[in-house]
Design a protein that fits this description.
197 residues
């Protein structure tokens, strides 16, 4: 029986180009490195859990310190935020100089003084900055929780009730400021002060 055109049963005949299958780059075989370490790698590091245990212990220690001395940790966090803002402002200035012919130059020129000024303001009056950051975080949690609730109710995707519960816990009666004590304390605690120059 003579082979029919397009018949692939004859191995001596080359296959037409439209019938050959090229390797699909989207379905690569799962390599062993993604599954886990090879036998040789696991022998070279006798205790791979040791760094994870050390980092977990350090996190527990820092968290305990933060609970024990919240004023010190809050002050340190505000200083770190201020230093990062000043550093980002300097980086924006350097980046604006490097890419001065780019269309996005205005973005860097507006962002640089903003970062520098906000960082400087935080460094000058840390107590007011602490109050402002507390209010900013409370507002972010409330708005974020309300957005989660709204999106979950409107879209009704899989497990949307859990997202509503998450949004309620983030912004609702059990949220970060359930009785208003912390935000009110942040506002009243700093209070009006007289500056002595």
């Amino acid at each position: 029986m003579p082979p029919v055109d397009g018949d692939l049963s004859d191995p001596s005949r080359p296959s037409p180009a439209h019938l050959t299958r090229e390797p699909d780059t989207m379905t690569l075989p799962l390599s062993a490195s993604l599954v886990g370490p090879s036998h040789d790698e696991s022998r070279s590091s006798p205790h791979p859990w040791l760094p994870i245990l050390a980092l977990g212990s350090a996190s527990i220690g820092i968290g305990t310190l933060a609970i024990a001395t919240p004023q010190v940790v809050t002050s340190a966090a505000v200083i770190v935020i201020a230093v990062l803002l000043v550093r980002e402002g300097i980086t924006e200035v350097i980046h604006a100089v490097v890419v001065r012919n780019w269309k996005g130059l205005a973005q860097h020129l507006f962002a640089a003084p903003l970062y520098l000024l906000v960082g400087q303001f935080i460094l000058e009056d840390r107590e007011q900055a602490t109050s402002a950051l507390t209010l900013l975080l409370a507002a972010a949690f409330i708005v974020g929780g309300l957005l989660r609730i709204a999106i979950a109710v409107v879209l009704r995707f899989a497990a949307w009730p859990w997202v509503v519960v998450n949004g309620l816990s983030q912004s609702g009666p059990f949220g970060p400021d359930s009785r208003g004590n912390r935000t009110r304390a942040a506002l009243v605690g700093t209070g009006p002060r007289r500056r002595v120059d």
